[in-house]
UniProtKB/TrEMBL annotation:
<dbReference type="Pfam" id="PF02536">
    <property type="entry name" value="mTERF"/>
</dbReference>
<dbReference type="InterPro" id="IPR038538">
    <property type="entry name" value="MTERF_sf"/>
</dbReference>
<dbReference type="GO" id="GO:0009658">
    <property type="term" value="P:chloroplast organization"/>
</dbReference>
<dbReference type="InterPro" id="IPR003690">
    <property type="entry name" value="MTERF"/>
</dbReference>
<comment type="similarity">
    <text>Belongs to the mTERF family.</text>
</comment>
<dbReference type="GO" id="GO:0006353">
    <property type="term" value="P:DNA-templated transcription termination"/>
</dbReference>
<keyword id="KW-0804">Transcription</keyword>
<protein>
    <submittedName>
        <fullName>Uncharacterized protein</fullName>
    </submittedName>
</protein>
<keyword id="KW-0809">Transit peptide</keyword>
<keyword id="KW-0806">Transcription termination</keyword>
<dbReference type="GO" id="GO:0003676">
    <property type="term" value="F:nucleic acid binding"/>
</dbReference>
<keyword id="KW-0805">Transcription regulation</keyword>
<dbReference type="GO" id="GO:0009507">
    <property type="term" value="C:chloroplast"/>
</dbReference>
Length: 208
């Protein structure tokens, strides 16, 4: 995955990177091997020029308190990876503050391609699903699901049944659980306000 490690100096590159992860990112010794297996490129990055400035950006600009849970982002470029994605969400209508909230809730957004992931999924969300953008602010994990294998099929099933489920209910459930929830919405009486289906039924009645 990262053959450059074989030629990286131990004392000036590898050891400082490991020390940084342990002391400043607060990765535990137990979790360190897993972190490096998932993102070995972390070992080749300069602490002063790359790793530490990226950590500060994620903490101070985005507001991610525990970066140890998303350590792979530390090997990314703030200028070429993070800023363009923040700018993209502003271009499509989110405020800078709301965009940061989305990335804070789901830091993996920084890893997705704008052209191949974010744009097509956002276009489908707005044009075909016709839903409110605030739903994405609350559930940015929407962009982690496959457009062809999960989002489109489940949206079409909801349309056929005349049901509008919230994004988490529609996308996070296993297939059998999702179908069961659809049947509950279609066959039962109006759910109580505390039910996870209340929002969906209310929304559906409003649009019809």
């Amino acid at each position: 995955m990262c053959p450059e490690i074989l030629t990286a100096p131990i004392s000036t590159t590898l050891r400082p990177a490991v020390t940084f992860l342990l002391r400043e990112v607060h990765v535990t010794g137990e979790n360190l091997p897993g972190v490096l297996r998932r993102r070995p490129r972390l070992l080749t990055k300069c602490v002063d020029k790359h790793l530490r400035p990226t950590l500060y950006f994620l903490q101070s600009s985005i507001g991610i308190e525990d970066v140890s849970k998303c350590t792979s982002l530390l090997s990314c470029s703030v200028e070429t990876k993070f800023i363009p994605r923040l700018d993209y969400f502003q271009r499509i209508g989110f405020s800078r503050r709301d965009a940061k909230v989305m990335f804070r809730r789901f830091p993996s957004l920084f890893c997705y391609s704008i052209e191949e992931n974010l744009e097509p999924k956002f276009d489908y969300f707005v044009v075909e699903m016709g839903r409110e953008m605030m739903e994405l602010n609350v559930f940015p994990q929407y962009f982690s699901f496959s457009l062809e294998k999960r989002i489109k099929p489940r949206h079409m099933m909801c349309v056929e049944k005349g049901v509008c489920l919230s994004l988490p209910v529609m996308l996070k459930s296993h297939e059998s659980r999702f179908r069961d929830r659809l049947e509950v919405c279609c066959s039962s009486s109006m759910p109580v306000r505390q039910s996870p289906f209340w929002y969906c039924t209310k929304f559906d009645h409003n649009v019809t």
